[in-house]
Amino acid sequence: MRVLLVEDEPAVREELCEFLALRGYDVRSVADMREAERVLHEPWLPCALITDFRLPGGSGLDLVRALRRDEDLRVNVTPIIMMTGHTDLTDQVRNALDHERLPMLIKPFDAVMLLSMLGPPQPYEPL
Amino acid sequence: MKALQDIGLDPSAASHTCTSPGSARGWFVLALLLGVSLAASSLRIVLAPGFELYLGPFFYLIAYRAGGLKLALGVALLVMVPSYFWWGHIISIVLAVAHVLFIDRFGRGHNLTVPTLAFQTTVGAAGVYLFLSLYYGAPDVVIALNLIRKLLNDVLMATLADLVCSVTGIDLARGAIIRRRTVHLASVLPAAVTLIAICSSVALFVAEVRRFPEDFARSRAEVMERAELEIRRGTPAVGAVLLPSAPNDSLRLPDMMIAPQAEQLLRANVMNHLGCTRIDDGSPVTGPNDRNTFAFWLAACQLGQVRVGRQDYAYLYATRSLAERGYRDTLLEMTGPGIILILSLLLQFLLTRSVKHSILAWRHVVEAFGRPGISQPIGPMFYEFEGPLAAIIDANNRFASLVDERRRLADATRELKAEMDLRLVTEIVFDRERGVLRMREINIDSPARLETIAVHPNDCLALSGIASEDDAFAEFRIDGSAGDDWYLLSVRGLEEPGCWRSGWIVRLRQSKLANDRLLQQARLIELGGMASALSHELKQPLFTISLSAENGRLLIGQGTDAGVTGASAKFERIIEQVSRASDIMARITRYSRVEDNDPHPVDLGEVINTALILMRPLMIQKNVRARADTPASLLVLAPRVGIEQLLVNAVQNSVDAIAARRDTENNGLDGEILVTVTNDDLGVHISITDNGTGLVEIDPELAFGAFETTKPAESGTGLGLYISRQIVMKMSGQVRIQSVAPPGKGAVMTIDLPTRIIAKPKTIRGKRVRGNAASDRN
């Protein structure tokens, strides 16, 4: 499974990336929204998106909305998981996330939960 | 009667003007009055033989009141002179002089009537009795009548004199007769009552006495008729004495001598026998003791003639007994008027006494006014006096208790002033531009005093805040005062903005420690405000640690060398993250201690950097970049924590302003904060510039108000700038905020600290710059 990870904090990004890679996911990680959009429009096309809510250059929510406006991406990039620090969650944000039907993980969380939300790294056995 | 004199109830004092002629005009008036007196006194108002009224006493009593003893004596002598011509003796003159002397000696404090009455009933009576009985040998009844006559006359004159003196006065100095402005009740009332009594007595007396001449003449005529009858009936012998008729005869005949010729009767022995000294034959009599006097009739013998048949007879009898009888009858008739007179005098006495007593009581109460607890005086008083007197007493007692209450209130206020430094003030004006309070302090004991208080700049805002309130409180400190005493101002009665009619100021007590605690609490509150950012800051290393641990476990589980190496790197990561977390904890702990705020040598650049590091999580969270342009190694004498707190607060506000601007403009703005430090002769200047919304208030000063905030409730207490200003003031510095000039947007906070610069920044190459270890570490 191809997973795009968007996280600005370097230590977290690296560890999270390694976490998923060690478990067999094809992970690419970027640090900001611009990079994320670039990757999204590459042929590599991720199947899942894990993004932090708070990003330089814009919020993770904006990324998701932009993504969902693209028909192609909308269909292909699922699941989408939002990571957030508790303090980012105003009522407004919470409502927006609910509205977009985005699952949230509040940092720090047990990374193992990511695994169940993403699904197995090799969903399709090549025939 | 001293008491009466003291309170002006002395009628003699009332009417006693006692002047002497002081000018030519005065002498003229005096001479005129004397002439009038003499003329009037020469009139004889004859009511009956021996019953005359004369006006002499009126004039010499008036003279006594007008001119004193000497004048009175002179006038007495003058006006009584005619009496010598009437009666042929000087006793009246003597008695008049005695009368004046008596009044002068005993009559002080009374009107003229009472002493006159006293005199006439004592000395006067004695004199008259002695004179009449010795000189004239008058019978008692005649003496009695004379006494009565003299009494009535003199008392009447005295009463008239009293009335006249109480209404007018003779000012001999100016030579004028003046009308008195005020009339004394105590002199007029008794005089009026006495006058009425005397006049009625006199009237009754006169009525009786008027009949006397007729009665007397009739009785003489009757005697003569009877005499003629007797003579006719029995032809008496010559020289016969007609005996008085039988006892049952109503008209008792006096002894009578009969002779054929009148000349025979006109002999000394006959007259001696009959007891008379002169003959009344019907011819006119002039000189003293004429037919108008009782002396005449007591000493006279009446001569008559009668013809019986063809014989002429003359008869002679003494009129004395007739006169005596007539006088006796008259005297008896006088009992009625006498009683009336006595009763009226008694009434007058009682009335006067009650009037005087009422007035005395009134005077006593009025004089005691102001003292508490006056009671109604006892004694005879008129009803009309009682009511108002009771009202005055009641009002007085209420007034006295009010005075007492006022005194107690003044005492209580004085105590409060001493205890609490309470000041009662009026006309309170807060001059916002100069930061002073002007007022007028009320003092119980002294006139109001103008006061001016310079208000601590931090607290001017509090006073501005209540400038439009009609009934408000404000706490403030005095600018420049050594202590940290807080004062509470209460105002009431708004007249204009910042001007109040009345209020009070009281000193509150507050210790320095409380102030420091306040600062610490503010810091704690700010820390709470940073809690979200801090929490995030700590969560990040924790998250990293947990991920590293997971990864490490997986790597070790691989059982390969690469796995072990990889795991080892994870441990490294963990250690590094723990260290980072520890740093954060250390910073927070140090910040939240109660630091003493005394100045120490501080590297300004290092402090600023530390503060920025402290705020980094927040800035990251809010997408704000901060830059510090500080000289290396600028050592100043300042409280470290205070400066840190200033920076923290400034950055906090800037971040919030930037976030707010971002929200309103909705443009993903990149926040920028710039901290610069410059120094000159005056001290150091720190400025913090941001590109947030700028100042939204019209008045930058309002931003420094306690609890003034435009931020939503969860993100700020509004204390930050207030505390900041406090800190700066404590360093004797200044802080201000301005908006960035257009077209730019944002705010600049400038902090001016007149601190002592210990070490100037040096940029000498190769040389180790002086500074503390902290700056080296940076």
Description of the molecule:
The complex is a heterodimer of chains A (127) and B (778). Chain A is an alpha/beta fold and 127 residues long. Chain A has one domain (2-118): Response regulator (Rossmann fold), CATH 3.40.50. Helices cover 43% and strands 23% of the residues of chain A. Chain A has 6 helices and 7 strands. The two termini of chain A are 16 Å apart. The mean pLDDT of chain A is 85. Chain B has 778 residues and is of the alpha+beta class. Chain B folds into 6 domains: 2-186, Orthogonal Bundle (Arp2/3 complex 21 kDa subunit ARPC3); 214-326, no CATH class; 338-366 and 375-410, no CATH class; 421-510, no CATH class; 524-594; 599-778, 2-Layer Sandwich (Heat Shock Protein 90), CATH 3.30.565.10. In chain B, β10 (423-431) and β11 form a beta hairpin. In chain B, α6 packs antiparallel against α8 (123-136). The longest helix of chain B is centred in the N-terminal third of the chain and has 49 residues, at 185-233. Mean pLDDT of chain B is 78; it is low at 1-11, 712-717 and 763-778. Chain B: Keywords: ATP-binding, Kinase, Membrane, Nucleotide-binding, Phosphoprotein, Transferase, Transmembrane, Transmembrane helix, Two-component regulatory system. Chain B: The chain crosses the membrane at residues 27-46, 58-78, 84-102, 114-135, 185-207. Chain B: Its EC number is 2.7.13.3.
Roughly what percent helix of chain B?
Answer: 40-55%
- Radius of gyration of chain A, Cα only, in angstroms? 14 Å
Q: Quick one: biggest sheet of chain A?
A: 5 strands, parallel
What CATH architecture label of the largest domain in chain B applies?
Orthogonal Bundle
What would you say the CATH architecture of chain A is? 3-Layer(aba) Sandwich
- Biggest β-sheet of chain B, characterized? 6 strands, antiparallel
Number of helices of chain B: 23
Roughly what is the average pLDDT of chain A, rounded to an integer? 85
Q: Return the string of H and E elements of chain A.
A: EHEHEEEHHEHEH
Radius of gyration of chain B: 63 Å
Oligomer category: heterodimer
InterPro entries (chain B): HATPase_C_sf (IPR036890), HATPase_dom (IPR003594), His_kinase_dom (IPR005467), HisK_dim/P_dom (IPR003661), HisK_dim/P_sf (IPR036097), Sig_transdc_His_kin-like_C (IPR004358)
Catalytic activity (chain B): ATP + protein L-histidine = ADP + protein N-phospho-L-histidine
Keywords (chain B): ATP-binding, Kinase, Membrane, Nucleotide-binding, Phosphoprotein, Transferase, Transmembrane, Transmembrane helix, Two-component regulatory system
Protein name (chain B): histidine kinase
